[in-house]
Amino acid sequence: MDMQKSLRQVVSTGKVHFGLRQARRDIKDNKAKVVVVPQNVREEILKELKGTAAPLVKFEGTSFDLGAVCGKPFSVSALTILDVGDSDIMDAV
User: Fold this and answer.
1) Domains in the chain: how many in total?
2) What is the pTM of this model?
3) In a domain, 92, yes or no
4) SS (H, E, C) 1-58
5) pLDDT digit string (tens) for 9-62?
6) Is 13 contained in some domain?
7) Which of 38, 41, 44, 77 is the least buried, fewest Cβ under 10 Å from its Cβ?
C-alpha cells in the first residue's frame, strides 16, 4: 500500500480534519476512525494520542511533507480521518 496515494485519496473522497486541536476534539467525541501524525511529532503528543481508542498511524515524513501530500500549503500536525471514502487507508491500521 502506498501511504501517500492513500492519504491523497482519503482527503479528496473522504472526510478529514486537520490539526492537533481538532484531532483531540474528534477523539473525545468518538468521531475519529484514524489519526495520522508526522514523523516529527513531539513525544508527549504521541503518548497522548496513543492512549486513545482511535488507531494512530505514523506518516514517514515531516509535518510539511504531510501537508504537501494532502494538497495543503501549510504543515499538518495531525490528520483525523472521519470517513475513509474510496481510500484503502484502513489497511495501514
Assistant:
1) 1
2) 0.90
3) no
4) CCHHHHHHHHHHHCEEEECHHHHHHHHHCCCCCEEEEECCCCHHHHHHHHCCCCCEEE
5) 999 999 999 999 999 999 999 999 999 999 999 999 888 888 788 899 999 999
6) yes
7) 44
